[in-house]
């Protein structure tokens, strides 16, 4: 596999990650993180660590409090060494929450992903992630907001063939 092809496939992983998060399609995370992946997130004032196999439940617990999210991930800078790669990409994310009174709260964060990947059976997968988003505006609310365990802004049928 050429370095250019590897770089494109790794960039595709970031696009799939944004889709999985923004469309609450947590089943897609199995295609992004290995089960044993070590994930470390410092997001604004929040910090958590988990394994790849646990990532869906961690993200769901957090994102159920969001009506809508939008993760814009810049093109990744990728270094490939055989079947291993290191990649870094910048992220800007907006989290829209609906308070119990119907008013809207927005929390915006900016930072970066730093990922170690491995090519397994010809497919790249993240085995270690460090995410740090030190720049934030607004606040993420953990109380006094409506819960959206499914998409709040549309239906899955309108954005996909699949109902993951």
Biggest sheet details: 7 strands, mixed
State the CATH architecture: Roll
Structural class comes to: alpha+beta
- The H-and-E topology, N to C, reads as HEEHEEEEEH
| N-to-C span | 30 Å
Q: What is the overall silhouette?
A: globular
β-sheet strand percentage: over 45%
Topology:
Blueprint: H1 3-22, E1 33-43, E2 46-51, H2 55-63, E3 68-73, E4 77-81, E5 84-98, E6 104-120, E7 123-137, H3 156-159
Parallel strand pairs: 1-7
Antiparallel strand pairs: 1-2, 3-5, 4-5, 5-6, 6-7
What does this structure look like?
This protein has 3 helices and 7 strands, in the order H-E-E-H-E-E-E-E-E-H. It is an alpha+beta fold. It has a single domain, classed as Nuclear Transport Factor 2, Chain: A. Strands 1, 2, 3, 4, 5, 6 and 7 form a 7-stranded mixed sheet that branches. The protein is globular and about 55 Å long.
What keywords describe this structure?
single chain, 164 residues, alpha+beta, Nuclear Transport Factor 2, Chain: A, seven-stranded mixed beta sheet
């Amino acid at each position: 596999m050429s370095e250019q092809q590897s770089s494109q496939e790794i960039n595709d992983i970031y696009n799939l990650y944004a889709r999985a998060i923004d469309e609450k399609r947590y089943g897609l995370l199995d295609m992004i993180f290995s089960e044993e992946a070590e994930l470390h997130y410092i997001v604004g004032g929040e910090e958590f660590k988990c394994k790849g196999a646990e990532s869906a439940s961690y993200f769901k617990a957090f994102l159920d409090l969001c009506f809508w999210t939008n993760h814009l991930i810049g093109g990744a800078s990728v270094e490939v060494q055989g079947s291993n790669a290191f990649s870094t990409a910048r992220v800007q994310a907006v989290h829209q929450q609906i308070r119990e009174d119907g008013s809207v709260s927005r929390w915006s964060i900016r930072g970066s992903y730093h990922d170690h990947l491995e090519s397994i059976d010809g497919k790249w997968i993240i085995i270690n992630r460090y995410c740090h988003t030190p720049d934030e505006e607004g606040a993420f609310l953990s109380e006094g907001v409506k819960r959206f365990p499914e998409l709040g802004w549309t239906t899955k049928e309108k954005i996909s063939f699949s109902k993951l």
